[in-house]
Design brief:
mainly alpha, two-stranded antiparallel sheet, 62% helix, single chain
Length: 407
């Protein structure tokens, strides 16, 4: 039954993946205003008539760099491809056919240094301003175009493709492989794997990250995905609440990660066993595959641990830069922080997808470890044989001491 459900989910995710690719190929990267505030009420239409909306779109087109969109705001953006000779005339010299005009442009490009004043890239424009707030002296920052294009293009659609793709791969794997069983079955006896303190800190970190991920996805994708069906009023409240909750949970995430570093770092250092575990795929590929030896944490868990630690450090650092804008970074730094934060968060979410999968539905008996703190003896022996052997030796020694007669 689990495999059937996983196959249905995988099919739906593959379709959604294709739709994401389609949207990414047809969606413009410009930001066109879609709502306004009338009185105290948000409305979807930026104006009461189509002409007003077209005016807003026309003003938005001014965001484009003129070198890419045409010689003037009134001119349409050039169509892709080379028009026929004579189909396009220069506004300043209408008697020069397109082919000759193109030759002139090529001549300019071949002498770029000599024509630097004409062909130079857009640059920052700064001056003095009486406006309050940081970075007020910057009037024009053309790199914002590249940031906006990346934010609305590769980051947004690439991130969606990555997350849906990871979920699809996991669903396909579950439909083909099924759950990883305990080969010898449940023994009915358990051993302690995680203390109450370790589990509490895990859930503090995990809970903080999950809510941070959900609120971050609202901020990144909410305008295009949630707002159309939720409406401007409810979405405005959701977005505002998500932003505040996103900032509030930085502290518990930082505390949880710090405790994880102090508690588990030394147990997650690489060893010679890790490469052997990775080569055998942890013994997860088929039921009759031998389980490679592992200590308290196997190679897969170590990779996730260090990904969470390093990723959290990046997220907290870039997040603080955005929470205190322009405190130690200008426009370029703020844009870099936002892009880095979004990319790192998306990568982390995909990794946590895999962690949640193997710790819940993907492997029989795994969830007990972090829920109750105890795991079945056969599970421990199969997946963490070295750690289990050390526990058994300790237990046997304690039992022998308790049974020895007092002198």
């Amino acid at each position: 039954m689990v495999r059937v459900i996983a196959a249905i989910v995988a099919s739906a995710l593959v379709i959604l993946l294709g739709y994401t690719v389609y949207l990414g190929s047809v969606t413009d990267d410009l930001i066109v205003p879609t709502n306004e505030v009338a009185g105290r009420k948000a409305v979807d239409n930026p104006s009461n008539n189509a002409a007003g909306r077209q005016s807003i779109i026309a003003r938005t087109e001014l965001q484009r760099w003129r070198a890419a969109s045409g010689p003037s705001p009134e001119q349409p953006r050039p169509a892709a491809g080379r028009p026929a000779d004579g189909a396009l005339k220069s506004p300043d010299a209408p008697n020069i056919p397109y082919s000759e005009g193109r030759a002139v442009v090529n001549d300019w490009l071949s002498n770029r240094d000599g024509e630097s004043k004409m062909l130079r890239e857009p640059q920052n424009v700064s001056g003095r301003s009486s406006l309050p707030g940081p970075a007020k002296e910057t009037f024009v920052q053309p790199q914002g175009r590249q940031w906006r294009s990346a934010r609305n293009g590769p980051i947004a659609f690439g991130g969606a493709f990555y997350l849906i793709g990871v979920a699809a791969i996991l669903a396909v794997f579950l439909s083909v492989r099924g759950r990883v069983p305990i080969k010898e079955g449940l023994s009915g006896q358990t051993v302690s794997r995680f203390s109450a303190f370790e589990r509490a800190n895990h859930w503090l970190t995990a809970g903080s990250f999950i809510v941070l991920a959900l609120t971050g996805l609202v901020i990144l994708f909410g305008k295009d995905v949630i707002r159309p069906w939720l409406g401007p009023d409810l979405f405005g409240d959701l977005a505002e609440g998500s932003a505040w909750l996103h900032m509030a949970l930085v502290a518990p995430l930082a505390v949880g990660v710090a405790v994880m570093i102090a508690s588990w770092s030394w147990q997650n250092l690489p060893t010679a066993l890790d490469w052997k575990w990775l080569k055998q795929g942890g013994g997860f590929m088929r039921d009759n595959a031998p389980n490679p030896p592992a200590d308290r944490f196997n190679a897969g868990q170590k990779l996730i641990f260090w990904a969470v630690i390093l990723g959290s450090i990046v997220l907290i650092g870039t997040g603080l830069a955005m929470m205190f804008p322009f405190l130690w970074a200008g426009y370029d730094g703020m844009q870099l922080a936002q892009s880095t934060h979004a990319i790192a968060a998306l990568i982390m979410i995909g990794i946590i997808f895999g962690h949640i999968y193997i710790g819940t539905i993907g492997m029989v008996g795994a969830f007990d470890a972090i829920w109750s703190g105890n795991v079945d003896r056969n599970w421990a022996k199969e997946h963490h044989s070295i750690w289990y052997g050390r526990l058994s030796e300790t237990a046997d020694a304690d039992e022998q001491k308790s049974t020895q007669p007092a002198e």
